[in-house]
Amino acid sequence: MDLGIKSRTALVCAASAGLGRACALALAKEGVSVTITGRNRETLEATAEELRKLTDVRISIAIGDITTDEGRAAALLACPNPDILINNAGGPPPGDFRDFSEADWQAALNAHLLTPIALIRATVNCMITRKFGRIVNITSSAVKAPIPSLTLSNTARTGLTGFVAGLSRQVAKHNVTINNLLPGAFNTDRLRKTAEGTAQASGQSVEVVIATRAAANPAQRVGEPDEFGAMCAFLCSAQAGYIVGQNILLDGGAVNITM
Ligand code: NAD
């Protein structure tokens, strides 16, 4: 299926690895010129080189922490006025809410609420003028089924969900869509990092923790980043203009709800 986005431009945040990288690759395979962001030049350049080998589009990089003014400025300088914006940043740490300082809360809100809003604010008007725009925020299944130990994530991402619910309905008439993709367990560094905490507490190996989690999933496995990227690319397609303000779970059915 031709997604109708060949020659479009995309800014994919926090894309040196994991789900961001998978979204960048899926878009590049559709002929989209992609700018990927990341904090470490060496890692980001290596990822960009991998993507260039797998596709035949222009891949550029923007170095910086996307949760800072400087990081966002670098991203927008490298990819001014993108047709497609994928908002993403590394997830907040787990823990009991009593143990987090105000700075921890500010950091989570900054990364998972204020940063995506700032990037949407910087790009949405050009999308409206162009009569095409696709914005996808990578959030979490925790938005639908909050995970007690991920209180920072639950809180900040739910705020973004409310923001998107309002704004997406205002811009849809311009063929600008904003949707959220909600990953469950995906095979990335983040999954291994969160499994490390459980492994330490339970005395099991990280492999056993992940295998146990996979076995409890209705699909009896964790997701692969490419599956996530494919869904992201479809949400960014020309055909997806009627998908507006949705929170789409990709979790193998782990969250058992009807809506
Ligand atoms: P990951 O840690 O495997 O990869 C994140 C990538 O983004 C890394 O390359 C990292 O260096 C980069 N990055 C992180 N913070 C950044 C920043 N501030 N600026 C620039 N680059 C940054 O994570 P992932 O599994 O790909 O997850 C992506 C998002 O999805 C995270 O917010 C995570 O919490 C969320 N999520 C992931 C899962 C999962 O199972 N993988 C489940 C639910 C939610």
List keywords for this structure.
single chain; 259 residues; alpha/beta; seven-stranded parallel β-sheet; 14% strand; globular; binds nicotinamide-adenine-dinucleotide
Order of SSEs? EHEHEHEHEHEHHHE
> What is the CA–CA distance across the termini?
28 Å
Percent of residues in helices comes to 40-55%
- What is the rounded Rg? 18 Å
The number of distinct β-strands equals 7
Report the average pLDDT across residues. 97
Shape: globular
Classification by helices and strands:
alpha/beta
Largest sheet: 7 strands, parallel
Spatial order of the strands forming the largest sheet: 3-2-1-4-5-6-7
Strand content: 5-15%
Q: Ranges with pLDDT <50 over ≥5 residues?
A: none
Task: Enumerate how many helices there are, as a single number.
Answer: 8
Bound ions, cofactors and other small molecules, one mention each:
nicotinamide-adenine-dinucleotide
In short:
This protein has 259 residues and is α/β, with parallel strands linked by helices. 47% of the residues lie in helices and 14% in strands.
Overall description:
There is one protein chain. With 259 residues, the chain is α/β, with parallel strands linked by helices. Helix content is 47%, strand content 14%. It is built from 8 helices and 7 strands, in the order βαβαβαβαβαβαααβ. The chain has a 7-stranded parallel sheet, with helices on both faces. Helix 4 (102-130) runs parallel beside helix 5. The chain binds nicotinamide-adenine-dinucleotide. Residues 14, 16-20, 37-39, 65-67, 71, 88-91, 138, 140, 183, 185-186, 188-191 line the site of nicotinamide-adenine-dinucleotide.
